[in-house]
Structure formats: structure tokens, C-alpha cells
Design a protein that fits this description.
Layout (H helix, E strand, L loop, with lengths): L14 H32 L10 H14 L4 H30 L5
Length: about 110
């Protein structure tokens, strides 16, 4: 797999350049988070028990450990906090989509 982002510190000479760089990164993060949410929704549909009840703490630790290897300055504790929010938001979206699909399903009575 190729590197998504060059993690070296960029040469930024002004506050405006720094903010523009952050805006660009935030836009990429938004797209990646949307994609992650979609894939996590597929995981929820494939699990025998989905949603918050189906959370897998061991899998979440594996995710954080792998991320910490790629982002050592953030470390596992910070990444665990970040990923907890990301995972919970994804579960909320999956649940919302499940409810919306259920409402849109033809009545079987």
C-alpha cells in the first residue's frame, strides 16, 4: 500500500498557508471518514450482532495499534480516543440507515 500523505513537516511560511493546508487535510479526512463509515456499515450488516452491542474491543485495539505504528507522535491513547468517536459515529450512521431502510420496506402484514 502506498503512503497517503507525506508526514514530513511542510514548509509553511504564513498563517494563511497553514490554514489552507489544514483545510486541504480536513477535506481529505472528511472523504476518508465518509468512506470508512460506508465500509463499517457493511461490516455491521455482515456481523451476527451489529450495532453498539456488536462492538469488538479486541478488533478496536488492533486498529489503534496499527494506526499508532503509522502515527507514533499521536500514540495509542490519543488514537484510541479519536477512533472511539469515529467508531461510535459510524455505528450511529449505520443504525440510522437501518431504521430508514426498515421504514422504506414494504409492509409485510
Amino acid at each position: 500500500m502506498h503512503e497517503l500523505i507525506d508526514s514530513t513537516e511542510p514548509a509553511i511560511g504564513s498563517l494563511a498557508e497553514a490554514r489552507a493546508a489544514i483545510d486541504e487535510i480536513d477535506a481529505a479526512l472528511a472523504v476518508l471518514l465518509e468512506r470508512r463509515t460506508a465500509v463499517a456499515g457493511a461490516v455491521q450488516r455482515l456481523k451476527p450482532v451489529g450495532g453498539f452491542a456488536g462492538r469488538n474491543p479486541e478488533r478496536e485495539r488492533q486498529i489503534v495499534t496499527a494506526m499508532a505504528e503509522k502515527a507514533p507522535s499521536l500514540g495509542p491513547e490519543r488514537l484510541a480516543r479519536i477512533m472511539n468517536v469515529v467508531i461510535e459515529a459510524g455505528l450511529e450512521v449505520a443504525e440510522q440507515r437501518r431504521i430508514e431502510q426498515h421504514r422504506g420496506a414494504p409492509d409485510e402484514s
